[in-house]
Amino acid sequence: MVSPLPFRLVSLNLNGIRSAARKGFVEWAVEAGADCMGVQELKAGPEDVLGRYDTIGRLRGHFHHAERKGYSGVGLYTRKAPSAVITGFGCREFDPEGRYVEARFDSARRKFSVISAYFPSGSSGEHRQAAKYRFLARLYPHLLKLRAEREFILVGDINIAHHEIDLKNWRGNRKNSGFLPEERAWLTTLLDQGGLVDVFRRLDPRPEQYTWWSNRGQAWAKNVGWRIDYHLATPGIAAKAERAHIHLEPRYSDHAPLTVDYRFTL
């Protein structure tokens, strides 16, 4: 019996698709060998993407753009055509911000989705932190309902460092957005009671494995980073994960691409 080929899934917050493209993102993506690639923070509308970034090599893009120009936005590039694409998760407050796109690959033997999501940041003030909590509260039951119906992998920038190992200066960030007790507790609940799996951490328990570095100071040079980009998967799919890699250089964004190879085929 021939074993399945790896399914390569990449996630990257682009911090602007046009900016990332100028730094070589498109060329890298063509050579990355991905079967599917989730991108976040497009900062571009349909008119900016169509004809320029809607396809990358053999990957076709599916996008959820923000209504606000130059803000947020997520995408999924897929080698295989999905059976369906869903934009938004049914939330009147956050769907206009372009934070969720789901590609479904359903067949007679499996119901499976890949989701690219961009969680809000609360770092700009209390009003955005409150919005972040509302987003988490609305997304949690959606993911539980989805898990009851199908296998899935959610990739993206979730703007939460889960444990002390997941950021360099955890002591100094205990009162800062991204490492607040309430945010971390939400993620713990999603993993423990919600039954999802932090795939990278299951594969790689080492410290100092980060995916985002502030542009302030010498954060990149000193590896003062945060691990806030994730693959969150249902258990059956997570069990098929074999290799994870954070692509550190060249840099296309203030985030690094996170790649996981899964032993299955669509």
- Which secondary-structure class do the elements indicate? alpha+beta
Strand order of the largest sheet: 3-4-5-2-1-15-14
CATH homologous superfamily classification: Endonuclease/exonuclease/phosphatase
Query: Approximately how much beta-strand content do the residues carry?
Result: 25-35%
Order of helices and strands: EHHEHEEEEEEHEHEHEEEHEE
Write down the domain tally: 1
Residue windows where pLDDT falls under 50 for at least 5 positions: none
| Assigned CATH architecture | 4-Layer Sandwich
What name does the CATH topology carry? Deoxyribonuclease I, Chain A
Specify the helix fraction band.
10-25%
The coarse silhouette is globular
The biggest sheet, with number of strands, parallel, antiparallel or mixed sense and barrel status, is: 7 strands, mixed
Instruction: Give the CATH level 1 class.
Output: Alpha Beta
What's the N-to-C terminus distance? 17 Å
Radius of gyration: 17 Å
Look at the structure and give the mean pLDDT.
Answer: 96
Beta-strand segment tally: 15
Oligomeric state of the chains? single chain
